[in-house]
From TrEMBL:
Name of the protein in its database record: Alanine--tRNA ligase
Keyword Zinc included in the entry's annotation: yes
Catalytic activity: tRNA(Ala) + L-alanine + ATP = L-alanyl-tRNA(Ala) + AMP + diphosphate
Co-factor note (free text): Binds 1 zinc ion per subunit.
SMART domains from the UniProt entry: tRNA_SAD
Keywords: Aminoacyl-tRNA synthetase, ATP-binding, Cytoplasm, Ligase, Metal-binding, Nucleotide-binding, Protein biosynthesis, RNA-binding, tRNA-binding, Zinc
One GO molecular-function entry: alanine-tRNA ligase activity
Domain Alanyl-transfer RNA synthetases family profile intervals: 1-702
Binding site residues for Zn(2+): H557, H561, C659, H663
Organism whose genome encodes this protein: Paludisphaera mucosa
CDD domains: AlaRS_core
Annotated EC: 6.1.1.7
Amino acid sequence: MKTDELREAYLDFFASKGCVRKPSDVLAPNDPTVLFTPAGMNQFKREFMGLGDPTFKRATTCQKCIRTGDIENVGKTPRHMTFFEMLGNFSFGDYFKREAIHWAWEFLVKRLAIDPNRLTFTVYQDDDEAFDIWNKEIGVAAGRIKRMGEDDNFWPAGAPTHGPNGVCGPCSEIFYHGDGIEEVEIWNLVFTQFNRVGPGLLEPLPNKNIDTGMGLERAAAALQGAKSNYEIDLFIPIVAAAADALGVDYPKIKDTVDGVRIRRASDHVRTLTFCLHENVRPGPEKQGYVVRRLLRRAVLDAYQMGRREPFLYTLAPVVAEAMKGGYPELADSVPRIQHAIRDEEERFLRNLENGMRLLNDTFRKTKAAGSDVVSGGDAFDLLSTYGIPVEVTESLAADQNLRIDEKGFEAARVKFAAVSRGTAEAADVFAVGPLDSLKEAYHKGTAFLGYTTTEAPAKVIGILEQGRLADSAEVSAGGPPIALVLDQTPFYGESGGQVGDVGVVRGPGFTFQVEDTKKENDFFLHLGRVVEGRIAVGAEAVATVDADRRQAIRRAHSATHLLHNALHKHLGKHAQQAGSKVEPDRLRFDFSNPEAVGKERLQAIEKSVNDLVMTAAPVTWTLMPIAEAKTLGAMALFGEKYPEVVRVVQMGDFSRELCGGTHLDSVGQVGLFKILAEESVAAGTRRIVALTGRAALDFVHQEEETLGNLSANLRVPAGQVGDRVAALLEEIKALKKQAAQRKPEAAPKATADDLLAAARTAGEATVVIASVADATVDELRVLIDGLRRKREKGLAVLLASSGEGKVMLVAAFSKDLVEQGRNAGQWLKKVAPAVGGGGGGRPDLAQAGGKDPAKIPDALELAWAVVSGELGGA
């Protein structure tokens, strides 16, 4: 069974059980708790929490997923991948354990016709119910059902003992084993039936849920008799293309280090293709960092195989072709994907030569010193200077039996602060060394004037360029930003979750564009570039903050205090701030809470904040001793270190907090407060993401416009859009069902055995030349692989097929015939013109195309004439 067929079989089967077939969620969801969608259940969080449509009880999906927890095993083991597809069926307080187990058995044994003797099962050690269903109802022998502990068969793993509190439950896993195939887990059934309230304390849930996950690639490998996920029909062309691009014969190097590299590149480019299709681009943080890391690792692998030019981008069309059965939309994005990949490849390769030289020198020096520990500072330098991720350094070091000094690396990272935005690296470099010298001359550091103004006169007291103090700076093309230090400034330096200001510093004959502001060692570092003239230490200037941006930041920051108040009102005093990020008209607020807030309370919190905004209460601040501030009840962040004299910000008579950020003059200036999301950050910590001011208003306008467009397109009042969409979906479902019933059954395709039965002999070789109806190039290749498994020596194959007015030809020779000088590419070059086409490829495997399907019989006769003439005289 082809992978595409398996995907459809699964979804159709569970649709027949009343599960609503839902499309895959995006890879990078609007979910602050995850970077990428890691499992099928993620898009149904609201349903699992009981917050969804009460009539929506069952679902089935094939979810695109990315997991990077075992990234170093990709390509090394048969099953690890970064991108994969997860088949799932779900119940939200509807069917439960008995149905989940019975249906899993029915699908595997009856629908897929898997030999039951190839299946084994596990259940949680205390789950007698699941054990009895498998044993007494399904009829599985007790010896093939293994009881496992909470670390293996409970979700979350180890939850009964170690937590976290909340919804959890036992699991039952299904394993497949076959001839020459190591045992592999293909399906996990999760029975969320408990609420953990403490160590070992599990309370039954009133509504029990089902969350299942079946790895599509793993199941396909089992059905196709493949020892590795990389040998299934979807991966074969990608692996082959990667090997071709790097100029190696994959079957020959399959079990070598280069074989691992080929598989890793195949996996990574598939992941990249899907990410870039969804506009998740390489970058310095979050999802972008993961994408960049995968791309660079693949490029580095190719570099170690001798490749010095971009290659990964050439594989994107192959991925789109291989995956078109499930994701035909990829094809439209291929040019954009290729451009993005090539651009990043070229950028990385420019720095890689020097980086690799330094990397190898570092390893050599480490060994020469009789050590097996690479300096953490060296590892960080490779990251910050050459862009080589520490994970790559660790992996390459491990290949030489070396390891990285993790503590040393972390110390270097903290010292220089790993890049989080475009200018962060420069800021941290400047924070070390030179500022100590500057502090000797200016003991008080930079005076901050930004609480009362956005423009102020200033004197340039320091210029830091590439980690050194400089006397002057001038306009330069490219390069890292420099840091300007002033005696006083209205620019706020990033701290307390509030981002740094941007703006401009002007003086006689110069203009300095400030792109970010940091605070270090009592100095404010204005990071940016000279855009006009020349600036020197001692110059007089005027520092001007981007006032509109500052005001947007003030709106968001003041709103966090209002939100804190509303959380205490609706959740309780335990809902303390645990962190925040304040940007122009956007905020992220983390707080302590053991459970999800819930839709109704979230709406009440949003309303409370907006009610406070409408009071237009004044915002004031004062400096006072910290003891006095605490006596007055001012709120402070847990774990935060405060000076003896603190700044207390008060809003009306409802909020008083210790805070060093910039704030509004009146809470009324917040304008509008709109919550976008509420999610879990970690056990016991929740996060609210919200908009203020213009951004909130723009969001509301966008929602109104979307609703208005829907209303107009559907020709119903806005209040009836939901009902109309639901009715349309039902109509579509009915039409699809009718279309499916009318669709004629596809004619069965030839098998390897069929082709061998009709084979001819030339000399001592078996020759298979045939036309296969309605087959794709991938299907022809799979047939050839099947023939090779049955005839490892003395095999010559040429298969033809047609579709949409085009001809596909694929030819192959067995290894021994290639060694005798036979060449599949040359064979096709002689045959393809018969169908009005051309092509070629490697000696062992080649493909060609043509324009005249009617001439396929002529081409096959020519193919026999050519090959029999060569082999008959061998």
